[in-house]
Amino acid sequence: MNGLLAVLLPVGGPPEEPDDVDAHPPNERRADRHPTPAPAGSEPRSAATSKHGKELLASHRLPAHTPSPRTWKPLLAGLLMIIVAGGGFIYSGLYIAIPESPWVSGSEGHIYGHVNYMEDQNKTPLANATVSVGDREARTNDTGYFDLHSVGTGQQAIVIEAPGYRQLRWRTVITGGNPLEYSFVLTEVNASDPDGNGPVSKDDVGNLNTGFYGCGALMMIFTAVILLGALFCFQRMRYPLATTGAILSFSVGYFQVYVLFDLIIPYGIIFSLASVILLLFSRGEFA
After folding, report:
1. CA dihedral 66, 68, 70, 75 (to 10 degrees)
2. Residue 236 CB: number of other CB atoms within 10 A?
3. What pTM does this model have?
């Protein structure tokens, strides 16, 4: 019987070898064949790192971000903005807002322009017309042009007269500094209506003052923004507001010029441009 079994066993194939329990524990064998997924919501386990590996990772860690080194550029930009703002307060704000004050606009003004009359609904130059402001007087040439220097500033009456034409009294505000241009039109005397040939009066003081006050208030607001931008330059904070103040300084610096040997130097525009360029090259210094 035993011999028969010995003969039949090779025919059915070799017997299955038992697993080596000691060499391959059950848990390890199951993990090799069918890895168990991590539970939902759990963090993946990090691989064990040796002490040497930790030191190696620490040595290759990226350096922390460090701000750009501080330079003199924002400080100089803020100083230039303060100079422009100061000039804007004096020359733009007060000069426009209080044009009648002699200590702002000066005691002398300069006016020029043309005197015409209507002929067939067209303006025709009027020669030899008299244009006067107070005790200052000038006459028009063949083209109707006049040029009158050293006139009083503030509220003044410009009187225009010519033989055969009605007198024109033009009340206005004359400021010092830049020359002011005017254009006047006289009407002929009507011989059939002697009572209607009196002086013609025009008054633009109210309109001018309204415009002066509005422009002056706007310039004052711009000046305040420029000063605020200069403060942020010194603190190196709020770069957009600092840049806004530098850009607005162009509108205020436009009025600031210096005359040297008949050469007009627009220092307000130069300082404004320099402050903008300095801020562009110091962007990294702002928080």
Report:
1. -130
2. 19
3. 0.48
Least Cα distance to 78 among 265, 234, 268 occurs for 234
Q: How many residues does the chain have?
A: 287
Q: Are 168 and 147 in contact (CB under 8 A)?
A: no
**Which 3 state secondary structure label does DSSP give 240?**
helix
Residues 162, 130: contact at Cβ < 8 Å?
A: yes
> ∠ CA(80), CA(225), CA(215), 5° rounding?
105
pLDDT over threshold 70, residue 70: yes
Judged by average pLDDT, the poorest of 42-46, 103-107, 175-179 is 42-46
Round to whole Å and give the CA distance between 227 and 245: 7
Rounded-to-integer distance, Cα 119 and Cα 128, Å: 17
pLDDT tens-digit profile of 195-254?
667 788 888 876 666 667 777 778 888 899 999 999 999 999 999 999 999 998 988 887
According to CATH, the topology of domain 105-202 is Immunoglobulin-like (2.60.40)
Listed by start position, the domains of the chain span 73-97+211-285, 105-202
Kindly list the distances between the CA atom of residue 223 and the CA atoms of 244, 248, 265, in Å, as whole numbers in the listed order.
12, 8, 21
